[in-house]
Amino acid sequence: MGSASDTMGGTIDPGEARHFGAMARDWWDPRGSSAMLHRLNPARLGYIRAAIDLHWDGDDTGFAPLAGRTTLDVGCGAGLLCEPLARLGAQVTGIDAAAENIAVAQAHAEQSGLSIDYRAIGVEAMTGRFDLVTSLEVIEHVRDPAGFVRGLAEALDDGGLLVMSTPNRTPLSRLALITLAEGTGRIPRGTHDWDKFLTPDELTDLLRRAGLTVTDVRGLAYSPATGFRLSDSTQLDYFVTAKRR
């Protein structure tokens, strides 16, 4: 459900980059292989907007809450999150291991009149720090989750905000994402390895070990009637926010 983002530093399997790179050309098609990500985006953006307003004491009615702030999206795919973040006023950098995704992201941003710095590199190759770091539906694809989290933490500036999301390792996620979603072709087969899913306790432990303070864990649920929505249940998928101590 996300994109591999870090072969350069050795945390992501190159096979993951090839898998997602093969999906690049129809990434922006809401009925294509990334349709699930399009359905996820409203809930994602709602959570991120609320986290931004809470972290920086923002006004939830403003149109550009990220004006003057720098943002890094790790595992950006073809830019489905980068473009909304840019429209919220951020100076956005998006990185991904698959060069095919970066090429599509650059072309789509140009067509949309948006200035986004896209790079086909891993998080360990990044220099500088960012006010907001996001990595959604990515860590479940990495080879070294602890190293990946350390890379995210190193990219986060003092006073900054990190937002992540990932599936939980539960019977529900196996049924919903692999048996049903992949089994029926709603998500391309081979997208997920259930054994690599992290529980909220496992991810928050990695974040703490990387020197960050976890500030929120919130579930993401799905129903055919309402689609994806924020939930108190983390059984399917969940968001985590963290800040530097």
Order of helices and strands: HHEHEHEEHEHHEEE
Portion of residues in helices?
25-40%
Which descriptor suits the 3D outline? globular
- First CA to last CA: what distance? 30 Å
Number of helices: 7
For CATH, the homologous superfamily is named as: Vaccinia Virus protein VP39
CATH architecture, by name, is: 3-Layer(aba) Sandwich
Radius of gyration: 16 Å
Strand content: 15-25%
User: How many runs of DSSP E, i.e. beta strands?
Assistant: 8
Oligomer: single chain
Structural overview:
- The protein has a single domain, classed as Vaccinia Virus protein VP39 (Rossmann fold, 3-Layer(aba) Sandwich), CATH 3.40.50.
- The N terminus is likely disordered.
- It is globular and about 45 Å long.
- 47% of the residues are buried.
- The chain is α/β, with parallel strands linked by helices.
Structure keywords:
245 residues, alpha/beta
Describe the SSE topology:
Elements: H1 14-21, H2 35-55, E1 70-74, H3 82-87, E2 91-95, H4 99-112, E3 117-119, E4 130-136, H5 145-155, E5 156-167, H6 171-182, H7 200-209, E6 212-223, E7 227-231, E8 237-244
Parallel strand pairs: 1-2, 1-4, 2-3, 4-5
Antiparallel strand pairs: 5-8, 6-7, 6-8
Briefly, what is this?
The protein is 33% helix and 23% strand. It has 245 residues and is an alpha/beta fold.
